Amino acid sequence: MVKKSGFLVGLVRAARAGRVDLIQLRCLVSRQKLIAAYLRAHSVRKLQLGTSQTPLPGWLNSDLVPEKSGIVYLDATRPFPFADNTFDYVSSEHMIEHVDYPGALSMLQESFRILKPGGKIRVATPDLRILVSLFSAEKTAAQTQYIEWVAKKWVPIGLGVEVNENKEVFIMNNAFRAWGHQFLYDLETLKAAMSRCGFEDLKYYQPGVSDDPNLRGIESHGAVIGNEAINAFEAFNVEGRVPDAKPKL
């Protein structure tokens, strides 16, 4: 009965929210100092959105709830605390699906604004089409492996149940409802959103792959989940470029 007490659940949630507020307030106080120090020290300036536990060396790492020292507090759905044309690169990995679609457009528009002419953005996210394809009557070996792995490892954590049948249904629900996911993309929808925000030369890449050495090998989600093959199967990356004659949107 204790676990089901609405009062106690409310207290736990309030305590967690209070902790988050304290972290954000502490990081807000030091934010401008961290930003200024980074900009002074780097001629090629790179911003990571949604760093979580995996900061990138040489990047200004940011997160909504910074858990490590040196990570800048930043709400990616609101105006960024940077001047126009400040950065050469922006990257987000498995972050855009955690905000709603209007918030994602705001993030992309702000990224466009702070990037220099010719600057690049790289966005990594799970592929909705991969999830839909799991419902195929005849499945590939890769699909079967993915279904079994996710159903065993992540569905019990995300949905709180163990499943032995109709696993595809639970995997789809887990993808939409667990981990704070708000909106899942396929390749064309993400490219359309990036194009709408001004980016051009949109290119698809598999995780870790890029023609630009500054964007090559920067993903860490495969290591975080403990399975590089699964990450390569479910995720994709899109890179976009700011036009040399940068328009004001």
Explain the overall architecture:
With 249 residues, the chain is an alpha/beta fold. The protein contains nine helices and seven strands. The protein has helices at 6-41, 101-114, 128-133, 141-153, 155-158, 167-177, 187-196, 221-225, 228-234; strands at 46-49, 60-63, 72-73, 87-93, 115-126, 200-205, 235-241. α2 links the parallel β4 and β5 (115-126). α4 crosses α6 (167-177). Residues 7-12 have low confidence and may be disordered.
Overall mean pLDDT: 91
Question: How do the helices and strands follow one another from N- to C-terminus?
Answer: HEEEEHEHHHHHEHHE
How many structural domains are formed by the residues?
A: 2
The major β-sheet equals:
7 strands, mixed
Report strand %: 15-25%
Structural class: alpha/beta
Overall outline: globular
What is the CATH T-level topology of the largest domain? Rossmann fold
Q: In order across it, which strands form the biggest sheet?
A: 3-2-1-4-5-7-6
* Parts with pLDDT < 50 across at least 5 consecutive residues: 7-12
Oligomer: single chain
CATH homologous superfamily annotation of the largest domain: Vaccinia Virus protein VP39
- Measured as a percent range, the helix fraction is 40-55%
Text of the CATH class of the largest domain: Alpha Beta
- How many β strands by DSSP? 7
The tally of helices reads 9
